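Issue 218. Parser rejects a valid record. Input:
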Amino acid sequence: MDFQETNGIQTGSGIKLVIYGQEGVGKSSLAAQLPGAVFLDCEGSTSKMNVRRLPKPTSWEMLQQELQFVLESHVQRQYQTVVIDTFDWAERLAIAQLCSKHNVNGIEGFGYGKGWEYEAEEIGRFLDSTERLIQAGIHVALLCHAITRKASLPEIDAEYDHWELKLGNKTTNKIAPLLKEWSDITLFLAFQTHVIATDDKGKKHKATACNRVMYTTKSAWWDAKNRFGLPEMLPLEYASIASIFTAPAPTAAPKPKAQQVIEKAQAAGLPTEQDFATATPIVTTATTLDGIFPQLAQLMEANHVAPEELQQVVGEKGYFPADMPVNQYPQDFVEGWCIPWWKNIFDLIQQNRNVPF
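Output the parser choked on:
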């Protein structure tokens, strides 16, 4: 079995984003600036914003149908990013569908925690299905609210507040890890308050500023990640992450094969078409060379080569039949082989001349 190796950064695919933060910090405003954004607004948070949106999904099935619509029409409508605002509200639609399908009144109605297992499987299938959008070059952004929970470290006997995705209390340990593992970048948006002391003893303080920032790296106090080498903290503005959506500069197109052959001949010190184009033209008087490509005719006349002699070499090489007239050779064959490799061709012609009859 043979596998082809690929190197370097792969481009052309969409980016998977999870953006979460406190209420009013600017999750939707940031997402609205993503390239070609269209919202699937599950909670109506963009009703006062001038953004492109599809109808509010009223079911889990409708949400998935709208994703399929984005996939099928993204070229025509210039959709580049699909934003689900918010995923914790979309989670409610998933739970409602599961309960309806299994005819139970609530997620707890499954018993023994089975409902939460079913939900994790459903969300996992949903995240897998976004791969179709990603491969089509469409970015997928999932917005979530944030919540603090008590956490502790094994090395200290104390609790502290930890910011994480606001999902169902009993599903957090199942759904939140799925989203973080799925994402290429998870951003935690927060208010950063600056406090200064107002007395000499440092017992009294006051807030002087409150900036909005986003964190890109996990810490003991919040969840975050990125695969793009971004700084740990950035100003909460699209310009801070715009570079990850910028396509790399296109690589130069490969040179035509004929040009590659010519350059190879030049490197070997062989005469080429360009050499003869700048040389003093040779006036062709032999009628046997009529209709032959001018530069080739010059070479043939300068070396006293008859068309039949060239035809013999071309026939021996198997490029064209030996009885095919030289003036019928295709231009790309003349430019790509006859002229660049004339020295070799003429050597073969001389060898044929020296063959005793």
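Fixed in the parser; the record now loads. Residues 279-286 have pLDDT under 50 and may be disordered.
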